[in-house]
Design a protein that fits this description.
The complex is a heterodimer. By secondary structure, chain A is an alpha/beta fold. Chain A folds into two domains: 3-133, Orthogonal Bundle (Arc Repressor Mutant, subunit A), CATH 1.10.10.10; 140-359, Dna Topoisomerase Vi A Subunit, Chain: A, domain 2, CATH 3.40.1360. Chain A contains 13 helices and 17 strands. In chain A, α1 (3-23) runs antiparallel to α2 (63-84), α3 packs across α4 (109-123) and α11 (300-310) runs antiparallel to α12 (318-330). In chain B, β4 and β5 (156-165) form a beta hairpin. Chain B is α+β, with helices and mostly antiparallel strands. Chain B folds into four domains: 18-219, Heat Shock Protein 90 (2-Layer Sandwich); 242-305, Helicase, Ruva Protein, domain 3; 330-467, Ribosomal Protein S5, domain 2 (2-Layer Sandwich); 504-626, Mu homology domain, subdomain B (Immunoglobulin-like, Sandwich), CATH 2.60.40. Helix content of chain B is 30%, strand content 22%. Chain B is built from 15 helices and 24 strands. Chain B has helices at 2-11, 17-23, 33-54, 89-94, 115-127, 191-201, 242-251, 257-264, 270-280, 293-305, 321-332, 393-399, 446-498, 506-513, 651-654, and strands spanning 60-67, 72-78, 131-136, 143-151, 156-165, 173-181, 206-210, 216-219, 339-345, 349-351, 354-364, 375-380, 383-385, 421-429, 516-525, 528-537, 546-550, 556-557, 567-568, 573-577, 586-594, 606-609, 616-617, 620-621. An eight-stranded mixed β-sheet of chain B has the order 5-4-3-6-2-1-7-8. In chain B, strands 9, 10, 11, 12, 13 and 14 form a six-stranded mixed β-sheet that branches. Classes of the chains: A alpha/beta, B alpha+beta. The interface between A and B is large, with 56 and 40 residues.
Amino acid sequence: MTDENKAVRSLTDIAQSIYDQIDSGRIPKMTLPLRTKSNIRFDPKHGVFKYGKATGARSAKKVNGALMLLRTMYVLEFIEDMIATSKSSTLREMYYISEGWEKAKFSSQDESNLLAEDLEIVTACMREDLKLRAEENGASIIGDITLSEMDRKGRLKKINCRDDVGDSGYGIPNNVEKEKVQLLSTNAKFVIAIETGGMFDRLVENGFDEKYNAVLVHLKGQPARSTRRIIKRLNEEMDLPVVVFTDGDPWSFRIFASVAYGAIKTAHISEFLATPTAEFIGITASDITNYKLPTDKLTDMDVRALHAELKDPRFADEYWRGEIETMLKLNKKAEQQALAKYGLDFVTDKYLPEKLTNMGVLR
Amino acid sequence: MASIADELAKKQKEISVSEFFERNRHILGFDSQIKSLIMGIKEAVDNSLDACEESGILPEITVMVEKVDKDEFRVTVEDNGPGIIKKAIPNVFGRLLYGSRFHAVRQSRGQQGIGISATVMYGQITTGKPAVVVSKTGSEDVAWRMEIMVNTKKNMPDVLKEDPFIWDGKEHGTKITYHMNGRYVGGKQSVMEYLKQTAIVNPHSRINFIDPEGKRTTFERATDKMPPATKEIKPHPSGLELGTLMNMSKDTKNKTLGKFLQLDFSRISDRLAKEICEKAGLSLEVNPAKLSLEEQKRLLAAIAAVKIMAPPTDCLSPIGSNLIKKGLRNVLDEVRPEFYAPPVTRDPKVHSGNPFLIEVGIVYGGGLQKDSQVQILRFANRVPLLYQQGACVVTKAIENTDWRRYGLEQRGGSGIPFGPAIILVHVASTKVPFTSEAKEAIANLPELQSEIELALKICGRSLKTHLNKRETKSKTRVKFEIVQEILPLIAQKSAKIVGKPIPKLSGSITKIMNVVWIDDSVSFEKKHHRVRVSIYNYTPQSQKFNLHMVLPPGSFDYKGLQFFPTEVRDDGKVSWELPKIASTERLDINFSLNGLNKEDYDENEIYASGINPVFIIGAEPLPGDWDVKGMEITESEEAPVDEEEDEEVDYDESKETLNDD
């Protein structure tokens, strides 16, 4: 069965179930795994975090539930139409299309995005199969990777992400699945994923990729699905170790967690997106003292975020507990670019080489 | 030694009343610039209202405040009252403690006759200018204009100038213009607020106000009916003090104790006078003026020991529940309050021989401020009290009431509550026990406080009932939206996707609702109230029960009825025996009420019988005292069907922020 047929069948199943419940005089509802921090579990088979067994009901007993069920019906119909006419839409377009759905109109794009994810979960299809695209992109790669990408005209284009691109690197497209992007060859030794554009540019300007045979991936904050997916493929298909280089604050810890362990929001597809062997290089809480970095005081929100992480199963190990508690004790955070205190080359000449050697990535 | 006493005696000389008040003007409330301006207007307006009421004239009062220079204002208050005869004008405006009401036992605004002459005096002290009084009585053709000052040394009026003139187009009335140093402000304690509150409790008057910027505001009349004239009564013996008794017995024209007791007090009958005299061991025939102190004391003890009827209450003028509501509505309409609790007028009670009664109204919601303390409107004999809220028995009573029970916020169950509400309290009495001559706060007498608290509780209960009703209604309305609008669409869409006919909804609907829902409305058009009561049976079974309503007696209109009531009683209780309503069916009852004013009826009171109350939303179970005749009341005992597998986590409410960043 093709993915499209599978998607259509799964979608019809949802409608059928709602129909049957009404027809037999029950209150219609859908049961979904709870998408909460407390309901993510380590999946030893894939080495990532996935949703646990706790479920919740979306029931017509309450207005919110009833409205979401109605929206689900509209979205089902919309997706089936797109599959039938070989179209696709962005999530934002779907949000605007709902303007014509009267009562079922989404009140925010968050709401429509969440519903799209709900449908992925229930149908076990990726949103690409449901003909929905995110408009998130723009994250980029620089490094000695040769890949081929199918262009708009259906031709395969071969690109070396170091030699064939400008300073902003290879733009990661929305869809990085094999039918679109194929990884061909590499001479690189490892992948370094970088949170901020400033640091990415610093590494590019200092020629870090060539000097150390590294693939630089810009995460652009919390990384999009396609960024995480391509990191995973680089890791699995080309056997490249992955390190993650972020700011030293509670939010950066979460960026690392979504790259390495899986994000709470997308835990149903963690096995496609997360790279369990990825390692955190810094800025660590101990870097702040070891390197005497310029710092900012933690805000109330930062402190709350750290306490929430202490209850997050993804951080429930000795290393992270230590990092979080140290940061709370210091009551300080530092940016990646604070390393510039020791000069523009310090990060590429000293900080990263030292750390990478300690981790065994560089020999 | 004697020389010191002589020296002191030389210094001790008589101080006239007006001289005393000149030095102690704060006693009359003229203690700040802002307040003085309000007090002056208040005194003049009080007088105008009293005069109009005594002569049965619907008051029309115009107040104008003009700014003369930085501190000085010119104030003009004009009424359409009976006017004052020429001879009396100087004394009314230029002599303190001169008045017609000081010795009368009856409810009125002014009592001591200090107010307006104190205003004139204060104006002349601060600006040096006389007051100009114009007055015309109905029986004379000419009006008189006088310039008056108070001679503070002698407490006598000085008339600087007097002219007769023709007051064009004015049949009768009085106008006073005076200059005064003051400060004009807006807000809670302001001329505007005072006039607004005055309009609330005097719905029979029209009050115009022209502020210093020339802006004109008119508080229209909400009724053309005068409040019933109050009668003068003799003092009531309960709570009588020895000093008062001694004065009365000395001054009485009656030569025997029996007559004195019967004629100089209210509620002492022939029989009761005998009983008192027996108890006191005094003869009925003794001359009251010749009683010894010892005998007076025995008399007082005997009076306290016998049972005396409460004083007659026609000396009091309650505003009345209807007019309080009208007055509040009239003035507050712009903030569109959601609810006017039916105002409460308590029966008269007595404090130290003086009859009093308490009235309370509560206004809730709409445009009223949500997060601040409730607004307290205090009134004494229809006069707003703007100052010294904290020292007033009204405030004490409000603070002492647990408003959490009645749906307002209150930390710890005492203190001034918070919420979008106005609490109005009116104390009417032949003698309002003020804490001071400025008449700003009512003294904390236990009789008063407990009466106020009782009235507040009754009014509070109506508020709570309304809030409960609103809450269940809004909860049900939400479910109503599900079954009426959303569920049909879900069914339609799912049927379309799976390519089957639209399924029947009744099963799902009754499981979601499982109630009989009664939705009602009242509207007013073309002088009729239209009442609609819609009954939706959202239970899985068909239902048969009885519906009852309380309507204003005599207003029920039999014309054009679809469902005739089984009974319409004289007291306004109306009952229907409803036909059987099938599951998911709806029944509408429509009828009209005739001959009522708009504000006479605005919320339906609906009861149901013959059905388990847990199934009904929108009607209360019928109280036992209804005693419905000829109707079969069957108490069904079935419990509501358990909602299936509840206690499931609601997916859409369990989500924390799903963002990882």
